[in-house]
Amino acid sequence: MFTALDNSPTDRFPLVVSLSTDDCRTWTPPRTITEPELRPDGSLSFIQASYPSLAEAADGTLLLAWWQRTPAGVNSVLCARLTRAWIEETRRWPKPLRIVAFGDSVTRGVRRGVREYQTFRYLLQRKLAERGFHVETINAGIGSDNTATAMARFDRDVLAVRPALVIIQFGMNDAAMVDPGPRPRQQPRVGLDDYRANLNAMIDRSQAAGIPVLLCTPTPMSRRYVYQDIGAYAEHQDINFMLRRYAQAVRQVAAQRKVPCVDLFSLFVDRPGGLDLIKDGCHPYARGHGLIAEALLEPVARLLKP
């Protein structure tokens, strides 16, 4: 039995096919038929590839038709001819190396204005594939999370996955000076000493399991933040007055532990117009995710090499 489906929990793409030879108990790893291209401006070449229909031709090949829609609302019906052997090739593919991206909503990425295919996680996976790496990036980002709350899920989301690499990025919520309400805070949600201790604990547990670690500094905030006029954020000209200290703490921990660090804070702050990419005040959008993926590519490739 063959099936075709859009293989994403959040989008109507990519369109993939798979084969079962045991009455649907197991399936071959999916093989991609089509997925959107990412344009230079961060937009996608199409936003939906769905309603697939499969039929067997007289010569034994498979005919697949599906409906595809562009961001401009242009609809098309596309077709492809497949063979069973081509679909079954995935049985012989090696298992991908797993990379866990462990962090908060910046790592989670997907939000209004950012689709899965525009996140740094997906872009990194694609760039690594172009270099010959067979990898799977796993999303372990949770909105509003900080290093203290994330420790409780470290075993489940990182160690249990047995990844070839874990990318750790926290700080936005650790350094927060406003709580929902909004209610101003006198101190950050997670103090600097505890923040350092939590990062060190994550490194300890990763290294004990033989998992390489890549640390990232938090991405900065901008004056588009909805609570910019509340409490300490209103009192300081630099909205990143506190977050700068947390970014520096990551650099220090990385240096002390001799683990690689990608400085995402500086990536945006030092770039002309970089803070304009933090469109809601605390999250990078499509273009920002592209910058993050580019910054991660070389360090990750080095860590994955045998």
Give the helix/strand layout.
Blueprint: E1 2-6, E2 15-19, E3 31-34, E4 48-56, E5 62-69, E6 75-82, H1 84-88, E7 97-103, H2 105-108, H3 120-130, E8 135-141, H4 147-150, H5 154-157, E9 165-169, E10 178-179, E11 183-184, H6 192-208, E12 213-216, H7 231-235, H8 243-257, E13 261-262, H9 264-269, H10 286-304
Parallel strand pairs: 7-8, 7-9, 9-12, 12-13
Antiparallel strand pairs: 1-2, 2-3, 4-5, 5-6, 10-11
Descriptive notes:
- This protein is an alpha/beta fold.
- It folds into two domains: 2-91, no CATH class; 97-304, 3-Layer(aba) Sandwich (Rossmann fold), CATH 3.40.50.
- The chain has ten helices and 13 strands.
- Strands 8-7-9-12-13 form a five-stranded parallel sheet, sandwiched between helices.
- A hairpin with a 5-residue loop joins strand 5 and strand 6.
- Helix 3 (120-130) crosses helix 10 (286-304) and helix 6 runs parallel beside helix 8.
- The chain is globular.
